[in-house]
Amino acid sequence: MARELKSKLNKRAFTALLITCILGFGMGAFGLINVGVVNGEKYKLKAESQQLSDTKVSALRGTIYDAKMNPLAQSADAWKIFINPSKISDQETMETIAEGLSAILDLDYETVLEKCSRSKYAYVLIKSQVEYEDKNAVIEFRNAHKGYNQIIGTEDDVKRYYPFGSFASSVLGFTGDGDVGRSGLEYYYDNILTGTAGRIITAKNAKQIRMSSDYSAYYAAETGLNLQLTIDQVIQYYLDTALENAVKLNDATYGYGIVMDVETGAILAMSTKPDFDCNSPYAINEETETKIDEELADEEGNIDEKAKSDAVVAARYAQWRNRTICDSYEPGSVYKCITAAAGIEEGVVKPEEMFNCTGSYEVADRTYHCSHRAGHGVEDFTTAMMNSCNPIFIQVAQRLGKATFYKYFEAFGFAEGTDIDLPAEFEPGADVTYHSLSRLTSVAMASESFGQTFQASPIQIINAINAIANGGKLMQPYIVGSMLDENGNRVFEREPVVKRQVISPETANTLNMMMEKVVSAGTARNAYVPGYRVAGKTGTSQKLTLGEEIYVASFCGFAPADNPRVSVLIAIDEPKAGAFTGGSVAGPVAAEVIEKTMQYLNVEPQYTDDELARLEESVVKVTGVTVAMAQKELQSKGFTVKVMGTGDKVVKQFPRPGQTLSKNGVVVLYTEDMDPAMVTVPNLTGLSVAEANNVAVACGLNIRRTGYTKGDNIASYRQSSEAGTDVQMGTVVTVYFRTEIKEED
Amino acid sequence: MAYNRTEAVDMRRAQHGSAAPKRKPQYQPRHAAPKPYVVEKSKRQLRIEEFRNSRKAMKILAVCSIFFFFIALQIYSQVQVDELDRELDSVNAQIAVVESENTRLSMELDSAISLEKVDDYAQNVLGMVKVENYQISYIDISGGDTVTQSGGKVQKSLWETIKMFF
């Protein structure tokens, strides 16, 4: 009986054991299947995150260089400062933190205090792109206060530096959060510049500490490629300076300009003024802000904050805009070069062919007037171009016929974008910005023959004129010449692209000669530069607005005419200081840019006999000789001599030997070792050449005249040293002259 | 208790078919064990054995010591590697900071010597003037370099010598 009982007990025990085993192993197996198969991925990720430390290695953004490898934009590590307001327990802590951070980071105390008061948040950004010294100051401040470690934090960030601030800002653009391109080249080449982030994957021990490098895998970050632009820092500076002065002088809304390499289509300089500082792109200048305030203020001087905010946003977009690429205007008389090129290429007109300008010309029911209402009379085609005579160009267009006229319109690239490597290029729209062939009426063609009733961007216009300069080749303009890796190896080199041959080299040469005459004796005289044969055409186009007459004054040309090196376009948008024609407003700016660029490119000036006769006299060396002898020597050359000191011999002279001065220029002789005599610069603007010279000499100064100084109605419009500044007696002040004849072009 | 199948059958038969008193089954070894042969060890042998035992213990101790030494060495090297890794991380971070500072300072320097500022300083502070065209001398190098080499003495004829004389 006992044995039977024992057997039963054994059986039960065995059964219980079996059930326990089945349940135990079953649950284990279930767990394994669940972890390994059903939710395998989830647990894999959890395990990886627990066992592996994955660190992202940021790829540094590529640098942007100019043509001579001067850095224009470069990135470096920086930091973000953030706070955890949910950990701030009392008002005193809040105030201390706000005070400390606002002082270190140069922020508004109230703003930081408001951020500290957001107690529901665990992360509030105080400032990004903080530099090393400021970050260290924040850490010191944090360490100096107990418990602030839980509140103030830092994290990695990147800062983009633009060493020259507003230099070529509309071309370079800027980057936003995370060093991502937002505008200009930074935006267009963002993928190229950004590179690929790397990773370090390291095993972690039980205490979550990274284990040795034996347990880590490193995937190197690939630094973004560096861009070498075709922009030349020096030429860009010349263009920037000239445009900035022109905008101020003419009280214009905008000024924009392009300098292009004739043979390749490479952009040497591109500028829009006013512009912005790439280091603080969201800041609008004080002048604009004042203007906004004035416009929005009601009678009691109150300003609607919402309206102001909208206006500021609009002003930002306006200042970021690269108007040489994105904007369009009617090219005006500059387009006459294209009409002339088409006419000569097709053989419907010759430069010496005679025309009669009666002052007006009728097409269908429309009467077109010449800028010279009385008419230019009998003139050859070259003279018609020099006079910018509308009726003659209408006749040339009519001889070409609509189809041929339109063929050249398209061939010179006015019906398509230029495909320049910059964002948001103006795209012409058929029957929107220009007349398609099917809708090109005889009236529309007549208007288009002298550059009206269609829109073109500055880059399109200079590209078309450049085709005349380089023998008829329409180029694809470009701004990035090459790309380099982090070791400086050139991984991409741009080859110039010829889009098509639009006119023959012979026609181009003929046009060159005609355009040179436009500058030497035509409507573009203010673009004349002695020694350099400038060829070009001015344009004045009226903007369609209600109420007031506003214009775009432009000049497009190239130099030297016999062997063109650079093409230049200057456009002054809405000049309001009186003069508004291309010749009087844009011409002098072009002359300034061309003269300096030619000097910089070491193009030797070739003076004509007439120009040589106007050249100034060179100062001879008179130090060491007696005062009497020095005076005699200098006076024989026509100079005015001023003697400083009571000595017998000249110990120092100013200007120094070799300097050229205009006739009756001042030479100061020092007979003792003494401080230089100083004089105050007078106002030399609005004067003729002789008047400016006399005023300067009377003050003990010299002038160097530049710009157009031939003929009558010449007046100075700018001087290199501002009136009222103190300079050394004998200093040479450059005075800019232009013709005051207000010819419409 | 180990029973074989045959014995189990016998046991059942004994339970059901006989009233004889039950007997405990007796263990019967298959082979009789030999009688152990005992040899008494001498004192010398005992000493040798004792020495051998102690040497064995020493060996085990030595092996254990070496084992623990290597473990300790391993731990120490691991600590060292960790320490160096931390140092490396720290130096890399410092390099990154220095590089970014270098970039910042380079940019500051570039900014300080921008063309605009140099131009302004040269003209307004130093009183310098821009270079004029007359100050530039242009040299024509389009023809390339030429070298004039003196030739060897040419033997003149008598007639040429007389002509040269006149």
Structure description:
- The complex is a heterodimer of chains A (745) and B (166).
- Chain A is α+β, with helices and mostly antiparallel strands.
- Chain A is built from 23 helices and 31 strands.
- Chain A folds into three domains: 56-226, Penicillin-binding protein 2a (Domain 2) (Alpha-Beta Complex), CATH 3.90.1310; 331-485 and 496-610, DD-peptidase/beta-lactamase superfamily (Beta-lactamase, 3-Layer(aba) Sandwich), CATH 3.40.710; 614-739, Trypsin Inhibitor V, Chain A, CATH 3.30.10.
- In chain A, strand 20 and strand 21 form a beta hairpin.
- Chain A is globular, with a radius of gyration of 36 Å.
- The mean pLDDT of chain A is 90.
- Residues 1-9 of chain B have low confidence and may be disordered.
- Chains A and B meet through strand 3 and helix 9 of A and helix 2 and helix 3 of B.
Task: Return Rg of chain A in Å.
Answer: 36 Å
Total helical segments of chain B: 4
Number of strands of chain A: 31
* Average pLDDT taken over every residue of chain A: 90
Domains of chain A (count): 3
Radius of gyration of chain B from CA coordinates: 58 Å
Could you name the ranges of chain B where pLDDT drops below 50 across 5 or more consecutive residues?
A: 1-9
Report on the biggest sheet of chain B: none
Oligomer: heterodimer
Round the mean pLDDT of chain B to the nearest integer and report it.
78
Number of helices of chain A: 23
In the CATH scheme, what's the topology name of the largest domain in chain A?
Answer: Beta-lactamase
